[in-house]
Amino acid sequence: MLQTKKTEIGVGLFLLAALAGLIFLSMQVSGLTSIFQRPGYTITADFDDIGQLKIRGSVKIGGVTIGQVSSIAIDPVTYKAVVTLRIDNNVEDIPDDSSASILTAGLLGDNYVAITPLYSKTFFHNGGHIQDTHSAMILEKLIGQFLFSINHGKTDKGNAK
User: pTM, whole model, 2 decimals?
Assistant: First the structure.
């Protein structure tokens, strides 16, 4: 009888530990937790079009992740997307004349913000703002422009005869 109780308690503790591990893993994979988030500072950038950029999207320099997108809002005056980037504290020396672009990981991958450092000797600090930005390339817009140019070219040739 005592052995059965010990077995049941052991199985119960094992299931609780497994459940806690599963919850922790799912929170880490989904990015919904900030428990182990490294300390950092924020900078902002204004974009005409952010495409499918999402909160918690990566911020990279040279392909190395240095932070994440912490918020996206719209400027009520300029109607541009204001993207707030949280940069890890271990990346301190990003020149303040750097540019930011929204790129796509692969052909159909997620969008991320790529920062291209330039040559200034002064650096971004908390609350900084990236002036030089390049919006996302939207595949649907590019295809539409291509089809329009093909159709427009055919009508011009037809009118020339």
Answer: 0.69
